[in-house]
Amino acid sequence: MTSPTPAQFRAVHGDMGHWQAVDFEIYEHLVESQYAVPPTPRPEPADGAAARPDPNPPAGAGPTGSAG
To answer: What are the residues whose beta carbons fall under 8 Å from the beta carbon of 5, sequence distance 6 or more?
Structure first.
């Protein structure tokens, strides 16, 4: 079952002047859910993207600073 839109809720429940507190609570949640922004998925790394260098490379790996 899907939730009604805020407009559908107002059409069924009539004038806001006659609403009870629970009606306002429900209506508020309907409005918030209508305008909620879905989370943006994180982009996947592109194929062949450079990997971040390991901050703790194994001993003897990588440049040693000596000209050789």
So the answer is: 30, 34
Q: Answer whether 59's CB lies under 8 Å from 31's CB.
A: no
Could you count the other beta carbons within 10 Å of the beta carbon of residue 6? Answer: 18
Distance from chain centroid for Cα 8:
26
Structure tokens at 43: 């982009």
Report pLDDT digits (tens) over 34-45: 887 777 888 776
Token pair belonging to 26: 């429900």
Closest-CA residue to 3 (of 30, 42, 36): 30
Provide the 8-state DSSP code for 62: S
Does residue 65 have a pLDDT over 90?
no
